[in-house]
Amino acid sequence: MSKSTVANRYAEALFSVAQKQNIVDEVNQELQEMTKVVSANRDFISLLTNPKFSSERKKEIVSELFKEANSILLNTIKLLIDKKRINELVNIAEAFKTLAADAQGTAEATVYSTRELTEEEKKDISTSFAKLVGKESLNITNVIEPSVIGGVRVQIGNMIFDNTVANKLDSLRRTLVVNK
């Protein structure tokens, strides 16, 4: 979950409403798309936090830009504008994504490797590591990082499973230095 208490509260409220309406996946997808737009265009948040524009004008702009969005998500964004909390949107999306994954028995995982993993490798990693964290499966994001040299490093929440060649070499180096 997000480190922001405010974001967690908004995410939990949005999740509760989405769950009651059985549209958690839809809201999650739309929220993730919105955060991509916001992250790619920092001027958008600046516009929505600019005191020169009225809250009503800001809400009109959001309604025009996201007219295809789910009404509960659009209403949440308008509420964030009214409460001057629109800068929490990315944190809310992160917290909502975690809540949605927990409800489905999945978790978000980042896997660092030297090359792009195949779907079969992702499936094997998901099966193996999901059991370790008490989940049914993992949603894997693969990050290419040549510094791992070989093997993989899996990060699930605040847990890290490091089985990389770089880590093993570093461990060996520390052992050799201590035993000198």
UniProtKB/TrEMBL annotation:
PROSITE patterns according to UniProt: ATPASE_DELTA (PS00389)
Protein localization: Cell membrane; Membrane
Keyword Nucleotide-binding among record annotations: no
InterPro entries, A to Z: ATP_synth_OSCP/delta_N_sf (IPR026015), ATPase_OSCP/d_CS (IPR020781), ATPase_OSCP/dsu (IPR000711)
GO annotation, cellular component aspect: plasma membrane; proton-transporting ATP synthase complex
Membrane topology field: Peripheral membrane protein
Ubl conjugation as UniProt keyword: no
Coarse class of the protein's main subcellular location: membrane
Keywords: ATP synthesis, Cell membrane, CF(1), Hydrogen ion transport, Ion transport, Membrane, Transport
GO molecular function annotation: proton-transporting ATP synthase activity, rotational mechanism
Family per similarity comment: Belongs to the ATPase delta chain family.
Record's function text: F(1)F(0) ATP synthase produces ATP from ADP in the presence of a proton or sodium gradient. F-type ATPases consist of two structural domains, F(1) containing the extramembraneous catalytic core and F(0) containing the membrane proton channel, linked together by a central stalk and a peripheral stalk. During catalysis, ATP synthesis in the catalytic domain of F(1) is coupled via a rotary mechanism of the central stalk subunits to proton translocation. This protein is part of the stalk that links CF(0) to CF(1). It either transmits conformational changes from CF(0) to CF(1) or is implicated in proton conduction.
Protein name, UniProt field: ATP synthase subunit delta
Source organism of this protein record: Ureibacillus thermosphaericus
Gene behind this protein: atpH
